[in-house]
Amino acid sequence: MSHLKICALIIMSTALLWGCSAKPDRELTAAQEQAVAERIAPAGHVVKAGQVVAAVATSSALRAGVDIYNRNCVACHSSGVGGAPISGDIAAWASRLEKGIETVYANAINGINAMPARGTCMDCSDDEVIAAIDYILDNSK
Ligand code: HEC
């Protein structure tokens, strides 16, 4: 084989490999696909298609208290922004709990003063907000 032919072969196979591995612009990443699936998943988690089952299963696994805390609550509750009781501050949470845990749950779900409703997790169910609160409380006693 001539030198030129080998060169041409290398260039062609490189182009072929690149062509196979390059993604078209419109293709979504796995993360984007999941975000879309979550956004269009019907309320109440009615399952319609196999793909949605997987997305719902993943999303409910992700929605543990710790994950919601890390996504929605940590900004205020690790630093005390606006007077937020700090996660881990045993005394602060003990005095909050004096009004009864149901009231504390309700205040977080409905919002109170500088505490936004659901702590900004607008797609959280009540139980998910409560799971995030329980996570904070577990770390504050
Ligand atoms: C924008 C800041 C901010 C975010 C985000 C935020 N909080 Fe708060 N949170 C506050 C502030 C400020 C208070 C104190 C409100 C008050 O009593 O005046 C508070 C209070 C609370 C209380 C105590 C309520 C009571 O009755 O004493 C709970 C529980 C709580 N937050 C849970 C959460 C959870 C769970 C999240 C995330 C899902 C969250 N917060 C996100 C600012 C925030």
Write the layout of secondary structure elements.
Blueprint lengths: L2 H19 L8 H11 L9 H13 L2 H13 L12 H8 L3 H10 L15 H13 L3
Helix pairs in contact: 4-7
This protein binds heme C (HEC).
Heme C (HEC) binds next to α4, α6 and α7.
Would you mind describing this structure in some detail?
The chain is mainly α and 141 residues long. It folds into 2 domains: 13-62, no CATH class; 65-138, Cytochrome c-like domain (Cytochrome Bc1 Complex, Chain D, domain 2, Orthogonal Bundle), CATH 1.10.760. The protein contains 7 helices and no strands. Helix 4 crosses helix 7 (126-138). The longest helix has 19 residues, at 3-21. It is elongated and about 85 Å long. The protein binds heme C (HEC).
What is the helix fraction of residues, given as a range? 55-70%
SSE ordering: HHHHHHH
- The mean pLDDT is 79
Cα gyration radius (Å): 24 Å
Task: Return the CATH class of the largest domain.
Answer: Mainly Alpha
Concise summary:
62% of the residues lie in helices and 0% in strands. By secondary structure, it is an all-alpha fold.
List keywords for this structure.
141 residues, mainly alpha, Cytochrome Bc1 Complex, Chain D, domain 2, 2 domains, 62% helix, 0% strand, elongated, binds heme C
